[in-house]
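Hi there, hope your week has been kind to you so far. For a while now I've been wondering how a particular protein folds. I'm sending you its amino acid sequence along with the backbone structure tokens. Could you read through the record and tell me how the tokens relate to the sequence? Take your time with it, there's no hurry, and the full record follows here.
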Amino acid sequence: MKFKTTIILFVVFLVLMAYIFLFESKSKNDEHAKEKLVTLSSESVQKIIYKKEDETLEFQKNAEGEWLIIKPLEAKADKYEVNQLAEEFADLRIERVVDEEPAALEKYGIPKKEICLYFKDKEPQVKILIGMENPLDNTYFAKRENETRVVLLSSSLKNLLEKSVFDFRHKDIFKFETDEAKSIKLSAKKIQWEALKKEEEWFLKKPVKALVKSNKINDILYSLSNLKAKEFVSEEKTKEEIKNYGLDQADYEVSLSIPLSNQEVTFFIHKDDEKVYATTSLSPKIVEIEDSIISDLEKKAEELREKEVANFYSWEVNRLHIKKGNITLTLVKDEENKWHFESQDKEEADKNKIETFIRKIENLEATEFIDPPLNLKDYGLDSPQARVQIWVEEEEEKVKEITILIGSEDKEANQVVVKNTRFEYLFKVDSALLEEFPKDLKDWKMKEENLMALKNLIESEALPGYF
């Protein structure tokens, strides 16, 4: 009997606990709901009218869902700024309720500002009346138009509420995907060059034909794509304004070709004292921009050139051929990253010496360029003293072959002329390269003592599975 009573009491206890839990959850949800002045989806906001003390800003989404400024001027809006406005006021939290039935709104300064949100397929609109700033904690007195109570809104809204029409404007001069640009031409007072993109590489076309260090062109393209207006000085430029801001004889003209989007655009940039003005061939506006772009545009053609003789990663090399004097040898790397002479017995070679040599080629950089027109005979390249061929296995099992010819040496300058057969121009590099070539076949063979040491390590299980 006592056992049954205990069971009954336990069941009653569980029912009471469930009721209390549900009741408290509902109370918390109701309390949470009361903490919001507006609880709607910001994604449904189609239009915003923001009335300030001195002006009215109006934003409208177009058919593509992009925000436009309708008033006080017509312009493309900064979607992040307007979205923030929509997000904050479509889901608006209350700090606390100040007055449930205010006798007069004037003492709260309501309304100093109004924000009206128009939602898709929802009537009527939601209007928030904002009053003065509470001097105690910088919160804002406010009320919803269709409610009587006065509440306090977070002080975190201050920055948003003080934004000007400029802050809400789209400030990009000409946004584009940098990897889609296929040509670039720069004209300045002392700088003239032109470059073309072939596959993933950039090549100078003028004043010389040469490979470009791609990141330097990409830096320029990135800076142009991210140019932003510091100030809008003209909304509809005239010939007179173009002349007044020095853009008829701009310090820098940069022309881009972007075939994928079927666009050709020219940037005109002029520095006047401490200010830099810009416009483009596709824009009616003249804007003031930051001067950080200037350092990118000051790069001369020779500063853009790739100094590396050959661009590859040494660890991707799987075959090497060398011919120097009486020495001719070919080496291959197996799946265990061991190097062998390409011969019938496939004798193992000294991995350290081979990879040191490959890294030397990888790190070869020009101290000087020799551009066409030129005669290979003048540089000992009609009959080179050495020839190096490297096979590189890149992504997707593509194999790239690189051939380097070694020409005459200037012993006084410690330089030797080399040619990458891919290019028409030549490189002068440090002649220390010549010291890395083997003097004899046995120089790169695995020495007997090294083989014995490896075998001893294997037997002691220090290098399991090496052979």
Summary: DSSP finds nine helices and 27 strands in the chain. The radius of gyration is 36 Å.
